[in-house]
Design a protein that fits this description.
39% helix, mainly alpha, globular, 2 domains
C-alpha cells in the first residue's frame, strides 16, 4: 500500500507543472500535510516510466502507459491510500490546414479512452 508517509523520502517523477499528474501528486501528499522531498519533472510519460523502471524513484502514470512503453518494463501498480483521483484528457491545436487531422486524432483518443473505461463510443 502506497501512502504519503511511506513515499515522502522517495524521488518522485511527474510531468511538469501545471500538469494534472504534478498537481495530483502535490495534492496526494498534501492530504497528510506532506510534500515530496524530491519531485523531479519530465514531460514524456515513456521516459518517466523508464526512470521508475530503473529503480530511481516512483511515478504516477496512466496504466495504459505500461503497455505503450514497450517490453522490458517491470513496474508494479500500487494501491494508494488515500486513493489517487482520475484525470481528464484535453486536446488542443491551432486552427490551421492540418486541423482536421488533429481533430481526427483527438476523436480517436476519446474513443479509446471511452473503451478503456468500459463506455460505448459516442
Amino acid at each position: 500500500m502506497a501512502t504519503p508517509e511511506k513515499r515522502v523520502g522517495l524521488p518522485i517523477f511527474a510531468n511538469s507543472p501545471p500538469s494534472g499528474p504534478f498537481t495530483t501528486i502535490q495534492m496526494w501528499f498534501g492530504t497528510r500535510g506532506l510534500k515530496p522531498l524530491r519531485l523531479n519533472t519530465c514531460n514524456p510519460l515513456t521516459v518517466i516510466a523508464r526512470l521508475a523502471n530503473a529503480g530511481t524513484g516512483a511515478a504516477l502514470l496512466p496504466r495504459e502507459i505500461l503497455r505503450l512503453s514497450g517490453e522490458g518494463l517491470d513496474l508494479r501498480v500500487l494501491e494508494a491510500d488515500p486513493p489517487v483521483a482520475g484525470h481528464h484528457l484535453c486536446a488542443m491545436w491551432w486552427d490551421a490546414e492540418s486541423a482536421g487531422e488533429y481533430a481526427y486524432l483527438a476523436d480517436m483518443a476519446r474513443q479509446i479512452a471511452l473503451a478503456q473505461a468500459g463506455h460505448p463510443s459516442r
